UniProtKB/TrEMBL annotation:
Residues 14-138 form the Ig-like domain. One of its GO terms (cellular component) is membrane. SUPFAM superfamilies: Immunoglobulin (SSF48726). InterPro entries: Ig-like_dom, Ig-like_dom_sf, Ig-like_fold, Ig_sub, Ig_V-set, IgSF_V-set/TM_domain. Residues 155-174 are annotated as: Disordered. It is a single-pass membrane protein. Residues 1-27 form the signal peptide. The keyword Transmembrane helix applies. This is IGSF8 isoform 4. It is found in: Membrane. Its main location: membrane. Pfam families: V-set. Keywords: Disulfide bond, Immunoglobulin domain, Membrane, Repeat, Signal, Transmembrane, Transmembrane helix.
């Protein structure tokens, strides 16, 4: 009897079989940031969550839980994309007030937002996705630890006060002559028990105008990587050496504007922002404070 010859499959058949098998294999995975995350009490935090490899509708639902350090086995319901009555009593009032909310970014991605962190918000956050799969495969929740740091950032005007003729007001009102040097100092310090960087900037607003991001025009600042940058209207003066910013000692910053112009009049502020590096390598701002330095009038010649 002759030897049996193996049956040869068409070259494309193994690939076709793999594709057919792969089409029926789903592995749900819930993704949250790598922890621990460090944030400061009184500030806002956003924690993202998205799900991949799922079956079912494109719009998935999400449920957020908190496990506090003193009760690591007790899940406290925070908020849900599906059930408006999901929140436990400890979060209910904050959810109703909009201080704690879940925002949908797309069908399979959301972000948990807490407007003002409290010390008791520290713990393990779990993002859970109710199953829409025909089989239970993969992970249906992801967890990340959040640690809440005390607010220890301090910002103030640096003594002695700015140069020029000053009136005894608080904050001081000072007058400089056109072409005269304008110097302002700021103290910014933090005692956070983690490695953080400070970014300090000097800004100007129209006198008596309410101060905010939309009304405060940046003059010059030191970034968290120690690079010095000027706001758009002041870039040429920084490049020409007419505008300078330096750090003196551990917590004092000094801005000098050479040759004051009429347009330099206004209310000057110092803003300090504290940054920390998250485990994924990205930098997050964890605190920001601002202090009024002086109301400056420029007397034309």
């Amino acid at each position: 009897m002759g030897a049996l010859r193996p049956t040869l499959l068409p070259p494309s058949l193994p690939l076709l079989l793999l594709l057919m098998l792969g089409m029926g294999c789903w592995a749900r995975e819930v993704l949250v940031p790598e922890g621990p995350l460090y944030r400061v009490a009184g500030t806002a935090v956003s924690i993202s969550c998205n799900v991949t490899g799922y079956e079912g509708p494109a719009q998935q639902n999400f449920e957020w839980f908190l496990y506090r350090p003193e009760a690591p086995d007790t899940a406290l319901g925070i908020v849900s994309t599906k059930d408006t009555q999901f929140s436990y009593a400890v979060f209910k009032s904050r959810v109703v007030a909009g201080e704690v909310q879940v925002q949908r970014l797309q069908g399979d991605a959301v972000v948990l937002k807490i407007a003002r962190l409290q010390a008791q918000d520290a713990g393990i956050y779990e993002c859970h996705t109710p199953s829409t799969d025909t089989r239970y495969l993969g992970s249906y929740s992801g967890k990340v630890e959040l640690r809440v740091l005390p607010d220890v950032l301090q910002v103030s005007a640096a003594p002695p006060g700015p140069r020029g003729r000053q009136a005894p007001t608080s904050p001081p009102r000072m007058t400089v002559h056109e072409g005269q040097e304008l110097a302002l100092g700021c103290l910014a310090r933090t005692s956070t028990q983690k490695h953080t960087h400070l970014a300090v900037s000097f800004g100007r607003s129209v006198p008596e105008a309410p101060v905010g991001r939309s009304t405060l025009q940046e003059v010059v600042g030191i970034r968290s990587d120690l690079a010095v940058e000027a706001g758009a209207p002041y870039a040429e003066r920084l490049a020409a050496g007419e505008l300078r910013l330096g750090k003196e000692g551990t917590d004092r910053y000094r801005m000098v504007v050479g040759g004051a112009q009429a347009g330099d009049a206004g209310t000057y502020h110092c803003t300090a922002a504290e940054w920390i590096q998250d485990p994924d390598g990205s930098w997050a701002q964890i605190a920001e404070k601002r202090a009024v330095l002086a109301h400056v009038d420029v007397q034309t010649l």
